[in-house]
Amino acid sequence: MAVSGKETRFDLYVTILIRSILADRPTNSQHIQKTRTPIKLRSEMSLNKKMAGVKLSGDSRKTVPGKSTIFEMTVEPGRKVYRFDVEITLIKPKTEKVLTKQVDPGLRILQRTACVDCIEHLHRQNKIPKYAYDGKRTLFTLSDMKQFTIDIDSKQLPAGTKDYARGNVLRVDVTSNAKVPVFDFTNLETALVDNIREQADHSPRQFLEILTSQYLVNTGDYQIIASGTLFNKQCLPMVPGMEIRVGLSKGIRVSEYNGKIRPLLVADMRRTAFYTSTKPLSVIFQEFGQVRVAFERHFRGVRCYGTHRKGFTFAVRGLTKDPVGHPSCNAADKTLAKYYKDTYNVVIDTRLPGVVADIPGKTCIIPLEVAKPLEGQLVPAEKINEQAVRKLVMENSIQPQDRYNFVTRKIGEICDGKGAQFLKEFGVTVSANSNDVAILQSKVCDVEAAGKKIIRPMPNGAFMKEAVDMRFFNPANLLKKWWVVVDQRTVDQRQVQQYIPKLLGYANKAGLALPPPLQTLAINLDDLQRVFQKARDDKIQYIFYIDDGRARSHHALKLFEAYYKVLTQQVITKNLADKPQTLKNVVMKINAKAFGINYMPVFPKSLEEFDIRNKNDLLIIGYDVAHPPPAQPADKRKMQDKEGDPFAANEARGRLRSLQPSVVGICANMSKNPMIFGGDFFYQESRRENVEPEKLRKAVKQLCERAKAAGRPIKRVLVIRDGISEGQFQYAVSQELPAIKSGFKDVFVGPEASAKFSFVVATKQHNKRFYEVVAGKIENTRPGDVVDRKVTRSDITEFYLQSHNPLKGVPKMTQYSEIANELNIEPEKLQALMQVLSTMHQVCACPTSLPLPVYMADELAKRGSDIFKAFINLPPNNEVRKNVRSNNGLEDFNELTDVVSYSKHPLGGTRFNA
Q: Angle at CA 709, nearest 5°, toward 703 and 710?
């Protein structure tokens, strides 16, 4: 990780916040069981269920009143709904387009709106009774009706749909669902399981999710952008090419509390970035300062419509090389300007470039003046620039009372007045006053530095003031040969000459015996690889690289580190100032990378059995997977002409989502010193949301080989997994956990193979917020706060822990779910252990929102992604590129993993990505 503006504690917070803001993952209601699993008797509950939410007799934590954004629902017993499958097709003279598929993200809102308009039209024509509809293929009705197929004249529909259909017919086909045509959605027993390996029935949850969105959609003020996410149609300006919309992220969960099973409505405020839809591209191009590269990068693949021609939509491929007044842009025998004036009475600026439309088999140039982005297109994370990040952070960093008030107002719209009347017709009510929760408070743990010096953090968990002067718990002593390398075009070498002695001074003060660099090299970025080749040959251990912080240099730096196995540290020029915190931050990174330990949390006596300072039989594994952005239509078309199209629906291994790989980061404390975490990453094709079991087995085997070589007698394994939804728990337990156990048993055999495993999922990808109520006011929760009853699942151990303190806005508690517990960890101990592991970051002088193993795994996955970006930009004849085969444009990801991973190198045993 580069030491830059992105590396301050504020920006660690920014990174987590942006991932939360931009997350576009399915809600749990999308995981629908096809057949129901028989329910066991309540007396047959698993160990997890028996322990879930149980307060131990020795729990001395203080309980304070709190509020949540989780609201209880009541359903009238025995109420039923009828489920129908919907297919809506736009019938054109030469083609037919199924609108309910909605595979093109750019057209999704337009097509969803057309589907909603059709169903509402039929409802008003008394063809469909009172209903709840997801805008796609699923329709629930209050009463039964006959199946039908009917054609609707698009001229009878609202203006937007009428324009999109261009006078053509929309055919609506409604059929009774073959598997579950009618069901009692009040039978919530089916939504709970006694064994995590069983699949719960999510049909009631799916119906209630759609139902609680329907009234807001009916008002005409909201659009469903993704399942469970509604945004107000009002757009607010943000930065060039982007606008902000405010919405509600919501979902349904089922929980048992005080012997009663009831559904819960969960909601949270969401403000995020959309492509500007209120201006033509000509205006936006001016806002970009007519910078073609930035404009093309931002809008490539974005779906637009032509204001000159109703119903005409296209994706942006790029801009013309010449202005539209140039002969190369002529339309047949006319200039483009004359064609648009004669045909559409539109005057265009011939000095501007035109949009090249991505239309297969055609070369189509559209003037910027008549091209306008379709509404409802989310800006993907990779296109959020620094200016937009700052704006998003500011917009989302609102006071807790304001955020809470927003959610309760929206819930009021759903459950009061006309919204309540609509729900009541289905036998459903929502209690707006049912969101009280009890919050358990505990203190954050102390940390220990050198000489058994105990540092007691402030109430918010931070100890930066003490960290500046502390000596390291375990200074590294392996770093002997290192270079300073600077970008001669962006760095003043006099600054470097002043900075390095100060850095050495801070290292010495911390107890790190860092010798002076062997040399300082001033290079151009193009010479960076040759520097690494020389460093490898000279057995240099560390390259300290200084430049102005361009992303291209960071990705290249980490690629060459991974290939040549020379540790690196990047510092940007603005951080060369004499700031104690910044200097200590850099020194802490150096020590952590070089097998040192900066500080250690003090394990309380209640966690003595998990104190890894004294217990070397406990192996803690963390892993996470990062997925690439979806393939662009142009990428898919290139593959269609080649044998074995990986994007084909009948591809045996599943449909490919991107030519880029998914990256799995994995780490563990497998060294001789169990306090040191090391790790690696590996690539897999982006065909599935989960981790490929065989590759996971191999990665765990490599971790265990290091542990065994270090003489570690592993008897207990704690696995912490990041970022999966409840619908993926079954796969994690039935596929991923067995793969982990298999990798372990590949190394530890015979009596050594008898280790027990516990598996915990830690995620911030949820929409639940909690607040403390202090003197009647809504305030943020504090580090150490826990919610573990009333709103948690009762069939497994689940809790919410606030381990960190946000610098701005409202924190989101991390949700923990224990889906396997062979170690029989009691809930209170598990909560305390996650807090302790969140105080092991080593560089950030405060607790983090996630435990170190998954925090580190997430960063490892990100590192692998950055390395791939640099890899694909290498020329084909580059030394690194030639070591990896390519087939149909798809890299051999096994070979790529072998080339750039750390699994067979000593650096894989340390925090090389600190």
A: 90
Tens-place pLDDT, residues 815-867: 999 999 999 999 999 999 999 999 999 998 899 999 999 999 999 999 999 99
Q: Which of 527, 447, 532, 427 is closest to 483 using CA atoms?
A: 532
Based on the fold, state whether residues 533 and 627 are members of the same structural domain.
Answer: no
**What's the Cα-to-Cα distance from 144 to each of 152, 176, 767, rounded to whole Å?**
22, 9, 34
Are residues 542 and 566 located together in one domain of the fold? yes
Three-class secondary structure of residue 605 per DSSP: helix
**How many angstroms separate the CA atoms of 155 and 310, rounded?**
13
DSSP 8-state symbol, 470: P
Q: Which residue in the block uniquely carries the two structure tokens 């920006």?
A: 11
Q: Per this entry, what is the length of the chain?
A: 914
Q: Is residue 180 part of a domain?
A: no
| CB contact at 8 A, 511 and 471 | yes
Give the residue, 537 or 49, on which the prediction is more confident. Answer: 537
Residue 781 has which token pair?
């929760």
Domain count, the chain: 3
Q: How far is CA 448 from CA 466, 613, 839, in A?
A: 11, 11, 11
Contact 613, 448 (CB under 8 A): no
Residues contacting residue 220 through CB under 8 Å, at least 6 positions apart: none
More confident residue, 771 or 892: 771
CATH number of the CATH domain containing 589: 3.40.50.2300
Do 661 and 530 share a domain, yes or no? no
Chosen domain end from 373, 402, 422: 373
How much of the chain exceeds pLDDT 70, in percent? 90
Question: What CA–CA distance (Å, rounded) separates 426 from 79?
Answer: 7
* CATH number for the domain harbouring residue 298: 2.170.260.10
CATH of the domain at 609: 3.30.420.10
Main-chain phi, psi angles of 213, to 5 degrees: -95, -20
- Rounded to an integer, the average pLDDT of 486-509 is 93
pLDDT of residue 890: 63
- Within-domain flag for 852: yes
* Strand-pair partners of 797: 818
Alpha carbon distances (Å) from 452 to 447, 466, 599: 10, 14, 10
Query: Does residue 782 lie within any of the structural domains?
Result: yes
Domain hosting 578: range is 475-593
Could you tell me if 842 and 592 are in contact, meaning their C-beta atoms sit under 8 angstroms apart? yes
DSSP-based three-state secondary structure for 178: coil
H-assigned helices in 675-736: 693-709, 729-731
Strands (E), 227-330: 229-232, 236-239, 242-257, 260-275, 303-306, 313-323
Query: How far apart, in whole angstroms, are the C-alpha atoms of residue 513 and residue 28?
Result: 51
Would you say 272 and 248 are in contact if contact means Cβ atoms under 8 Å apart? no
Mean pLDDT of all residues in 634-661: 69
Q: What is the mean pLDDT of residues 581-595?
A: 93
Three-class DSSP category at 148: strand
- Are 589 and 617 within one domain? no
Which of 341, 373, 405 is the last residue in one of the domains? 373
Q: How many CA atoms lie within 13 A of 344 on its CB side?
A: 16
Token readout for 765 is 């990808």
* Strand positions, DSSP E, 345-399: 353-357, 364-367, 371-373
Cα separations in angstroms, 610 against 269, 757, 836: 38, 14, 10
